[in-house]
Amino acid sequence: MVDPGGRTLIVYCDPDRLEAHLKELSPADGRLIEALCEGVRRFTRFDMSLLAQQPRTLMGPLDWARLGSKLLPHVGPLAQWGLLSARAFGARFKDPLLRRAVPQMFAWPEILMMAALSLLAYTYTGNAGFPAGASLEFSRSIERHYRELGGQIHYKSEVERILTHTDGGGVGRQWAAEVRLYSDDEHRADYVISAADGRGTVFDLLDGRFVNRGIKRLYDGHLPVYSQVQISLGVDRDLSAEPHWVTYLLDRPLTIAGDERYEIGVKNYCFDPSLAPAGKSAVIAMLTAHYHYWQRIYGHRLYDTEQSQVSGIIIDFLANLYPGLRAQIEVVDEAMPLRYERYTGNWLGSSCGWLLTTQTMPMMIRGMSKTLPGLHNLFMAGQWVEPGGTVPMVCALRPQCDPVNLPSGRAPVRDDQELEYLDIMRAALGDAGLAHFHELCRVL
Q: From the CB of residue 422, how many other CB atoms can be counted at a distance below 10 Å?
């Protein structure tokens, strides 16, 4: 992170190194810095996947007791950081660089500090990293394993409809039974698991026939999603000596796609030699974007003009940082939100579903249903079934997609079950532990 005066904050994953560096920058913020780095240390011992190992809607009293006993040692940091955004935490610093830089350390200011500190902690312990070969090789490794297990994959076979059948001559329960492709081929299925776009599955593939008020509200646009613009450059220059990710904090904004930008983040991927030929570099800049800004001009000449203007502004910015770079650019690729939508089907071109923020954290704690009301044998997977639907979150949700774990309905909890839950929790945690666990649930 570099401010207009050249002061630099380096985001070390090692909490000891990070603490020393931050205190050099701002001794006056020592207490906040110590709290931040102690949070990283404590999250090295917390497995965030605990919150996704079993569907909360299917958890019984004993399940909640087990979860409570596992969460109890982490009640302190979860309560401290679970509903605090990076923006709010950054505002507490006295130093002007830290006030601006801390909210931008993790690419979006509204990220919960719990998730941000976990990211640093897991990277420090080696539990997180960048897959060699990037997303393509990552996907190919999954493909290879799936095929080794006997699975078949049909590429270029886009689904047009999920077909349903009804028991009892059209008056009984409805079941997801087939998928129809745009080629008009139909494939029968014992179960249909949709890892496609959530809104597209519900309202397009199923015509919105299996919804309730809650599902309609999920997709009414009030929850935060991350639409973005990405400008990618292939450069005939070795940038391996440069930091792989730098965020520049600007004193005067750049106006890009209708918004004033006070931060520009630039990444180069020289740490992975498979992504560019020797002596060359792959460089990208990613910016948040308003989907509807681009939707309004899509299909008009202005859309192409605006794309070129955005890439031109980014290239001008980089050329000032790296003299001679403009003449070394060999490839320019411009990806707007509608391109993400066209290639992936993701609603609003979102790259990770709903963001995990103070607004959506309660959804993660309560758990979201992986089924649709009134429809049996269809299960939802992917990035739209929990907030913060990044690749790690999707992987953590894998057990919840097992049809054995996902019956179509569940009887409501009775009063005697609630009493049993309290008894089991009290036996497992003790009175003080039970009180701490309930306080954590209240805070989250």
A: 15
Which string of DSSP letters, residue by residue, matches 134-184?
Answer: HHHHHHHHHHHHHHHTT----SS--EEEEEEEESTTTTS-EEEEEEEETTS
State both tokens at 439: 């306080």
Per DSSP, which regions of 305-377 are E strands?
Answer: 329-335, 375-376
With beta carbons less than 8 A apart as the criterion, state whether 50 and 72 touch.
no
Strand partners, 282: 234
Longest C-alpha distance within the chain, in Å?
A: 75
Q: Are 102 and 90 in contact (CB under 8 A)?
A: yes
Spatial neighbors of 161 by CB under 8 A, at least 6 apart, are: 179, 180, 205, 206, 207
Condensed to tens digits (0 to 9), the pLDDT of residues 94-145 reads: 999 999 999 999 888 988 998 899 999 999 999 888 888 988 898 899 899 9
Distance (Å, rounded) from C-alpha 270 to C-alpha 278?
Answer: 9
**What DSSP element (H or E) covers 250?**
strand 245-256
Give the CA count within 13 Å in the CB-facing half-sphere of 254.
19
Answer whether 364's CB lies under 8 Å from 55's CB.
Answer: no
The answer to whether 239 and 283 are in contact (CB under 8 A) is yes
Amino acid at the residue 260: E
Q: Look up residue 24 and give its two tokens.
A: 């050099």
Lowest-confidence region among 312-326, 365-379, 384-398: 384-398
Paired with 286 in beta bridges are 230
Tokens of 269: 């991927």
pTM: 0.82
Task: Identify the structural domains of the chain with CATH numbers, from first to last.
Answer: 15-125 (no CATH), 134-222+352-405 (3.50.50), 228-348 (no CATH)
Q: Rounded to an integer, what distance in angstroms lies between the CA atom of residue 294 and that of residue 297?
A: 6
**Which DSSP helix (H) or strand (E) runs through 437?**
helix 415-443
Between CA 43 and CA 112 the distance in angstroms is 13
Residue holding tokens 């496609």? 196
Task: List residues bridging with 264 in a β-sheet.
Answer: 248
Q: Which helix (H) or strand (E) holds 280?
A: none
String of DSSP letters for 86-103:
HHHHHTT-SSHHHHHHGG
Residue 389 confidence (pLDDT) above 80: no
Q: Are 231 and 307 in contact (CB under 8 A)?
A: no
**Taking phi first (over 0 means left), then psi (-120 to 50 degrees means alpha), and beta for anything else, what does residue 157 get?**
beta
